[in-house]
Amino acid sequence: MVVDVAGSGARRTARWPWGTDARGRTPWTRGRVLAALAVLSAALLVFHSAVPNAVGRLGSALEAFLPWLGLAVPVLLVSALVRRSLTALVAVLLPAAAWAGLFGGLLLPADRGTHDITAVQHNVSDENPDPTGTARALIGSAPDLVALEELTPSALPAYEAALAAAYPYHAVEGTVGLWSRHPLTDVRRVDIRPTGIGEGWNRGLRCGVRTPRGEIAVYVAHLPSVRFRASGFGSGPRDESARLLGAAVAAEELERVILLGDLNSTVDDRGLAPLTSRLSAPRRGLALSWPAAVPVARIDQVLTRSATAVEVRTLPATGSDHLPVTARIRLDAS
User: What is the pLDDT of residues 61-119, one digit of tens each?
Assistant: First the structure.
């Protein structure tokens, strides 16, 4: 009588796919590389601020797209199942928990409680072929405040004419402007021009707004663009402009502040720390705004002090390469 030990072992392996494989590895001893990748993904999510910026501003580049690290979770999960590795499956829980802790709240249902102001922030694009249509689309969401960037001298009259009836108060400084249902006071330019840029570069505006809940300060800003270059993430001018804007906000005498603007990065980017350390980001809504065709990041921001943006979402596309962002804002008691 001959016993086919090898054959019965092969049949057992086929029958029990989560058992020992042909090389003698158990579900707990295989998949260690996948487990290491899961731990690395979790570490980058939790300790992203430890990634240095000294070389190519790698830290800022990572943080600008930090939520997309969550894509590692389904990829690693499927790989662990295919590999039949319990070690990898357990390790995948780490980046999943880290992502949920950082960004899960943005996916929760919107806070439907009371709010005091609705604001729209939109980079309308200096190549927008339909300024009038864009303005009418923004009016359709019935905001109290409309902040626009990339206003050109040729398109500005069209925006002013289309918005005049619904928004009798407005101010424009350079290429940024604010339209309001409520009276404006103490309108002034905010100098956020980085070193090396000429005098004609005006992208910062501050207005007092007399709301039924009292006066608030509203800032409209368009920070310099960033570029991926051979030397790395080119965010130097943007970071300098953010520092200047942060200093202006810090010096603001009114307690309640709303900042509306194209800040050319996400709120996780350390380059915006002069602003995000002083102002709060919305609690609900991913509201990816750029590029309009396939949005991958929210670089159009609504930040507040002594106020809460209880919800932020995008509006349908206009003639711009950005999507409009609208926020419902609750003002704190003054």
Answer: 999 999 999 999 999 999 999 999 999 999 999 999 999 999 999 998 877 778 999 99
C-alpha span between 69 and 83 (Å, rounded): 22
Q: Which residue type occupies 207? A: C
CB-based contact 147:120 (threshold 8 Å): yes
What is the domain extent for residue 100? 5-106
Domain boundary at 106, 132, 152, which? 106
Q: Are residues 57 and 96 in the same domain?
A: yes
- Would you call 201 exposed, middle or buried from its count of C-beta atoms within 10 A (0-12, 13-18, 19+)? middle
**Domain check: are 140 and 244 in the same one?**
yes
Contacts of 115 (CB under 8 A, 6+ apart): 310, 311, 328, 329, 330
- Single out the residue of 159, 178, 137 nearest to residue 318, CA to CA: 137
User: In this predicted model, what pLDDT tens digit does every residue of 106-162 receive, in sequence order?
Assistant: 998 877 778 999 999 999 999 999 999 999 999 999 999 999 999 999 999 999 999
Q: DSSP letters of 97-123?
A: HHHHHHHGGGGSPP--S--SEEEEEEE
Domain boundary among 79, 106, 133: 106
Q: What is the pTM of this model?
A: 0.90
Distance between CA atoms of 26 and 201, rounded to whole angstroms?
Answer: 64
